Amino acid sequence: MTAPVVRFAPSPTGKLHVGNVRTALINWLFAKGQTGGEQGQFILRIDDTDTERSTQPYEDGLKADLTWLGLVWDDTFNQSKRFDQYDAAADKLRGMGLLYACYETADELDRKRKIALSRGRPPVYDRSALNLTDEDKAKLEAEGRKPHWRFKLSGDRVEWNDLVRGPQSIDTSSVSDPVLIREDGSYLYTLPSVVDDIEAKITHVVRGEDHVTNSGAQIEIFKALGGTAPDMAHTPLLVDAEGGAFSKRLGSLSMDTLEARGILPMAILSLLAKLGTSDNIEVRSDLATLAAEFDFSKIGRAPAKFDEKDLLALNAVLVHDLPFEAVRADLERIAPDAANEAFWLAVRENCETVHDAKPFADIAYGTISSVIDDEDADFIAEARNRLPEGELTSESWKAWTTELKEATGRKGKGLFMPLRKALTGQEHGPDMSVIFPLIGREAAERRLSRA
């Protein structure tokens, strides 16, 4: 197999979210997961033809997010630097009679669609603009109308073998000629994308299944411009855990937001790589492993369900193995008093994110509200009297509770829960044998004293 050349083409008009990242990741894994030959190329194309909405801060942000994730690109370019090439392609299509001027307003087009539907016909553009004479066009332009430009489809059936969906075909007579250039002269996605794919020698276009219908028109534009259409793979879209529309929740799932919440890159990548595939959703330690395991044949046709609970579960697996040096900076920021190895090793298995260590830092080093129930008051007083002398160690908890068990006859929950509540103010948390020496004897004595 020839080394694939793929592209990820975000618009710098917003933040990078999990839906974007899944597309980028699938492209990257396919390009970098090839065996027995040269690795493929992953190209980052910045789709900034919408010059009013595209901004440099958004572009910088998406590049920073991709770098944070490890999805490093082999080459990058901006469409806003290539308008001359798009103009040349448009002129070529006009010369071939395949790009024609239309003057209908949005209201007129909407009315045409409604009339077609009311008569039981598909709402396909009727190509009435092809019948306009030069005199007609001049009159319309004198009225202040500016044309938008449509690509004239062949009306034939376009076929391709999709790497995810299998054999696909689009009857181009059943769809409207696509608009390639708006009234204001700006380009829609379609033509620049084809021009760039030809020049960059893109071998595979991998994107969401919402682009399937567009593919028929784009394949014809490839041929008209003298190019060869790349192979295509259209993947199912993400839905939420209940199977509902996902788009409204994407803002809270942008990469900068997830990073701020303490979600690790490999948790995000492991989940997105396995969602909607036949593989189990399990955490992986690096991108190379995910790439080696990737295969389009594993991707199913059903929508891929994204559940934040899965993301947190994978993140927890990674967090539980993080050494202290990997979290030192975070601990110094969120809980300076707790920035030590003993504390981190004590609490990490109770954390889904590093940020979850903050409440435990408050328990170990802060001021907490002890919980001492009336029925446990005498027991807690006895426990205070029997606190081990000197500095508390990893052996202190067992020795202390064993002594209390023998002295009071308490055992199980009746023994351990009152002590946990008095010392931590909570019913759940880290292993007390580990947190007890972090609290220290002086603080423990104070917390066991009922005010």
UniProtKB/TrEMBL annotation:
It is found in: Cytoplasm. Its main location: cytoplasm. The keyword ATP-binding applies. GO terms for biological process: glutamyl-tRNA aminoacylation. It holds the Pfam family Anticodon_2. A motif ('KMSKS' region) lies at residues 245-249. PROSITE patterns: AA_TRNA_LIGASE_I. Belongs to the class-I aminoacyl-tRNA synthetase family. Glutamate--tRNA ligase type 1 subfamily. This is Glutamate--tRNA ligase. It comes from Henriciella algicola. The lineage of its organism: Bacteria, Pseudomonadati, Pseudomonadota, Alphaproteobacteria, Hyphomonadales. The gene is gltX.
